[in-house]
Amino acid sequence: MAAGFKTVEPLEYYRRFLKENCRPDGRELGEFRTTTVNIGSIGTADGSSLVKLGNTTVICGIKAEFGAPPTDAPDKGYVVPNVDLSPLCSWRFRSGPPGEEAQVASQFIADVIENSQVIQKEDLCISPGKLAWVLYCDLICLNHDGNILDACTFALLAALKNVQLPEVTINEETALAEVNLKKKSYLNIRTHPVATSFAVFDDTLLIVDPTEEEENLATGTLTVVMDEEGKLCCLHKPGGSGLTGAKLQDCMSRAVTRHKEVKKLMDEVFKSMKPK
Amino acid sequence: MEGVMQTETKIRAESGIESGPRGSGCSLRNFACEQNLLSRPDGSASFLQGDTSVLAGVYGPAEVKVSKEIFNKATLEVTLRPKIGLPGVAEKSRERLIRNTCEAVVLGALHPRTSITVVLQVVSDAGSLLACCLNAACMALVDAGVPMRALFCGVTCALDSDGTLLLDPTAKQEKEARAVLTFALDSVERKLLMSTTKGLYSDAELQQCLAAAQAASQHVFRFYRESLQRRYSKS
User: Fold this and answer.
1) What is the per-residue pLDDT across A130-171, written as a single tens digit (0 to 9) for each?
2) Distance between CA A80 and CA A137 in Å, rounded?
3) Structural domain for B180, as ranges
4) How far is B184 from chain A, CA to nearest CA, in Å?
5) Which family does it belong to (chain B) (predicted)?
């Protein structure tokens, strides 16, 4: 009976739950799904992580390669993110060139890396003007159940913390780079940007961490990326219903608590990793 | 009806420049808007903000491909073409922002199973490009007669290293700023429709920028109203 109602009138079905201040999966309006993170699972990558936000699963693999630094910034390296939304994760995507959602997500991740200064690009430079590291970050979504941006940001951060770069010295005589694979060091992660996404319903209600059904029924979405000092790296609101300043304030406070939760989880995971 | 109306309004709102670290000098650059300048699209507009200029054309409500049609409302499509080069990932991201903003205000339910296409061409970019695109899109939608529940406008704020707020920054000011925030506000209650930001800033600064953008949007909406009044009073 409920399943029939849900198919015919999904919005009305949803509103019945919202009136009681909860959601069909039993969560409260401000509650996140269970977050799990697993790092270093990909042996061939220099850094990797797997993040599950409820059913949404994103895996991030980072490969470091050599490249020439850009001519206008000879002391900087590159960080190249790419989000891949394949038909595996959802029926909405077709195989072929990246669709709009994948491109928007890739641009969002690139903006977060740029704005939050999570790593200093100068740290990636080996020899100014000649050689620098290029970090290719591939984020592959294995299961799309909403809130892809939060999962991707978390996966990227965890993978970056897991990256170990070998020491490189430039041999003066031959001018070739010599890589010492035995001596590896972690990247210097300066800030920890954490994304919190909200969905707006009926122009008034804000719910946190929407699932895919909720995203389809919502009238707008909002993603806030915050670092540990409470500074905002990104306020991404791609259209949708209007929000007042007061509502934004509520979102900010929820983002602050979410940041603490995520940071705690990450610290636990990294502490439990055995040092190599 | 060929109304090629050129309306130029010089809008400056100076709320006083204080010398403290939170001084804010608010002044928008000169803007100008020209409507109905292209004969083929159903609606067109060219919006100029200082030296930044964007040309917008709207086709709609028109026929939609069966794969893209939505049974109960109109399908909105936005194409943004940069001045030089081919459109890339950044353009796709901006198209999504503009499209979602338009979807929030256009009454798509009145034209189900149709498509409304907005095409934007960047003519010159001298800072505050996204805001100029939003303004041009709004004027073009009005010119095409697409039913909307409100008008919207784009406002850009830049925060420099000592926290001074600058509205409608030029390209040079944007590069030197610590953070650049672009907002789209609606005309009925000045609610925030769209926001995209670059750089690091605090929560208090966000609220400050939002308040300044809401004040500045008054001027933009007044300009829209005057230019439309002038255009329709002549005919």
Assistant:
1) 889 999 999 999 999 999 999 999 999 999 999 999 988 888
2) 6
3) 31-233
4) 8
5) Belongs to the RNase PH family.
